[in-house]
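User: Hi! Is it possible to get a structure for several chains at once, not just one? Here's what I have:
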Amino acid sequence: MTLPEIRAYLQKHKIDAYFLPRNNMFLEEDILPEENLILALTGFSGSAASLVICQDKTYLFTDGRYELQSKMETDPKEVEIICSSADFPFVWLQNHFENGKFSLMYNPWLVSAGTIAKFCAMFSQAKLINDDKGLIKLAASAKKAHVFKLSEEYAGISAEEKISEIIPMIKQNGCDAYLLTSANEASWLTNLRSDALPDSPILRAYALIKKDGSVILFADNTDDANILPLSKLEKNLKEVKKGKLGVDKKNLPQMICEIFGEKNLVDIGDIIRNKQIIKNEVELQGYIEAHKQDAVAMIKFLYWLDNNYKGKTELDIVAKVDACRAQDDKFLCKSFDTIAATGSNGAIVHYHPSESTNKVLERNSVLLLDSGGHYQNGTTDITRTIALGLPKSQIIDANTIVLKAHIALASTVFPKGTTGVALDAICRKELWQENMDFKHGTGHGVGFILNVHEAPRISTQAKNSHFAANMVTSIEPGYYKENDFGIRIENLYYTKECKNSNLLKFEVLTLVPLDKRLINKYLLDEGEINWVNVYHQKVWETMSPYLDNKHKEWLEDACAPL
Amino acid sequence: MTLPEIRAYLQKHKIDAYFLPRNNMFLEEDILPEENLILALTGFSGSAASLVICQDKTYLFTDGRYELQSKMETDPKEVEIICSSADFPFVWLQNHFENGKFSLMYNPWLVSAGTIAKFCAMFSQAKLINDDKGLIKLAASAKKAHVFKLSEEYAGISAEEKISEIIPMIKQNGCDAYLLTSANEASWLTNLRSDALPDSPILRAYALIKKDGSVILFADNTDDANILPLSKLEKNLKEVKKGKLGVDKKNLPQMICEIFGEKNLVDIGDIIRNKQIIKNEVELQGYIEAHKQDAVAMIKFLYWLDNNYKGKTELDIVAKVDACRAQDDKFLCKSFDTIAATGSNGAIVHYHPSESTNKVLERNSVLLLDSGGHYQNGTTDITRTIALGLPKSQIIDANTIVLKAHIALASTVFPKGTTGVALDAICRKELWQENMDFKHGTGHGVGFILNVHEAPRISTQAKNSHFAANMVTSIEPGYYKENDFGIRIENLYYTKECKNSNLLKFEVLTLVPLDKRLINKYLLDEGEINWVNVYHQKVWETMSPYLDNKHKEWLEDACAPL
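Assistant: Yes, the chains can be modeled jointly so their relative placement is included. Here is the combined structure:
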């Protein structure tokens, strides 16, 4: 169905609006292009979106990262873009239907029970209509996914041990089982992965964890005979139905409430995440090693770029950096679609080059390169902004301010339990002083060969992300000047306890030099200069043994003190 | 009744616990000592407290500021102190009554409807028992309060104009009236004040605002014949009862729900606060002038202290600083009970000297002095830490780090809408780097001749305080070394828009020198030294015209560059 057809249906059936978030049944960010109903309907390919289709018009809600891109990808006659936060459609509905009397259609696989509850609390006079006829049909991938087990050598803890730690929480809450609907967490719990998605090795399955320790996985289209098809989910849930089923309503498709019934459903929250985002010692060692492998690839790429950028396009860059990573024996896949943006494309925060937007690298400007890999031993995510020729001083100064913001957060110590909102301000403050800012989060947790974006978050919204030791997170402030250039400096870090105190610090994982050609030393104070020099010294010492002479020479120069 | 008598009652009637927050019917912080049931029952005089009286024992919940004081004031055989956050009793109940089956008695005048709703959501199996027999009786003051009107010369806006701005919000929410149960806000709305409390000139009244613009005030024991006694509240609410009554359930005593009935009660939140905490231009000018008057008093006091501290006690200090303020023609009353703490008393965060704790000022230590006044034109609140003799270098360095934290926040610019959590981290970061911290908020809004503590807040908890222009707030980081010394540096500021940007900055109100004898210049960077010098230059230029020669000479010295 097209948007005009859906609107005609709404008109005919006197339904005021259709609410469609960018979800599949796992309610997570990573979905296949063929599952992306918003892409199919509007052309918008960004990773944060929801639609409200009204009888006369369609409203697309996204966030600041996609302000420019969303306008470029959609038809302004059909789609009005509203850039705000993910929560915004509800506030908008409140203003749009002032008397609160309206009907809203939705697909219960794509909307969480938590969202439905919030909707009902906000709009006591509105009417919800379940799209059970499939006006907007879920699209599935035809590809059969290969399922594989992470070796314990890398996972550190067996699935059995992880499950045994979860069971007491299920029992304590008086439940007979727990339905885990987060694919990211089900993959972590079972140590299983798959090749279903191009850049996230998660196994896209629901896990029904019974209090006796047995786990049944549900997923379609896999090569693992132990995984039941989704059509068996209903029957298995009904077997639990005599007892109580624990769930996390915030992440539970409303459909499960309809299948299981509300009565014996107990909302015990996400009992996995707080274990999953604290990395064990083996995982941490894996991240450290994977970042060395990744640094070899990035250093080779940067060396190549310095000597070969003239006449190359953004897509050439993507091909080259991806090829450099693929040389590593342990490389599995990219951790997300590589972003290579030159000149004004850099100002489109999460721009991905395509045949239609592809640009030849601009001289005397910068290349913004955000990329990463999943390896057998860990996951990486790095952004470097790289000088091409002689960028103007405005770019150099902006890059230096972004670097100051990066250092401010990377070098701070902070008490256990500090929130992502607090850390965010420590970083952004450096930009605010120069009347600069950026419209995306400052950092995100990075899954262990799972989704590259997970908890905790560092952002103005992350009031519920409380930091603890052994979390892996990015720090990635940026600055974007529309129609001109974009800058982002991203390293991964893990949190570590300081000696003899209750404080945490960030220990760096990423080992790739920052582009000194983009640093105006006179804008840095002594402590900041020292931070850059100590970082580069560490990069040099750790990475030089892995490089041949020509790359070693390049690195020595790149890592020389400011 | 005593705690053992209450416990005996609970045992006899098989009631598991009695929940008693430190409230009167206005659910605000400022209460009279004779209304303080927790003080009467336990001896604890702090401003943050709630009690859970169980059959065998009493649990007192307070926060980190009162960790030491609460232990000193209560009997450890009867009362167990639990230092955490204000929300904690519920979490504690959850752990204490593990199966969730327990009965809890409470007085519905002292507990908000919001708290009761939260309780019911958390404890579906618990039983609430309304203390309608008055096991713990509310205590009222016998004193008749004098009610007076703020002149528009100082208030800036008439009560009629303020009310006319509130009416549309009442109508938009489909209500016929709004019951305002915050005395702070009712005082602001009506421009009325009273002398009921010793250090907060609020009129302690409920305001019933009808959609026709008429306002009925309810309060006992006033000299204003237009104010109805509280006994008339029920009848007047019943007259509204045909229609809908708007309330803010978070701040509404549960008793009102029981009088009015839940059915026609509409929770439309606090519709006054966001107007009240944005000061108008006349109010802001009043704050500015009042701070000059206050600075004259403080400078005279500091001059006196330098020459006379030997042999003086903390209570002598309180008497002297209070007397200095009282000399001003526009002085109304203190804005809170003066804190003067020397040596180890300074480490008790909200210590107030009394006959039993009073100490002679320690030589070679510091005096922590936190005081303020209400004037006809505004309200002040200032803390200075003052050298007595030659304090050890540990104190000087600690004071310098606290100063760095103060400057970090005072000199930052930040986008409109930034939360108090974010601002808190910018301040505290400077302390974290030295493994220091403090267990109280970083700042609070300051009412205009109202409660000295109001919204917005700057703290690790203040995720819902969003900053806008023209708010008046304190910045007051500190450091407290148990059994040794205490430091706090507090100025008031108002938020102001930066030119040509969406950013806010803090504009200083307080004009009293910082003690340079406690500043180790070598711990400050150039920007921080410059901040101190610019501040002192402003103090000197503004204040010197108001002083006689001996005070002027003292100030010139105090304000000379670092």
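The interface with chain B takes residues 412-415, 418-419, 421-426, 428-429, 432-433, 435, 437, 460, 463, 498, 501, 503, 525 of chain A (CB under 8 Å). The first helix of chain A runs from residue 3 to 12.

User: Great, thank you!
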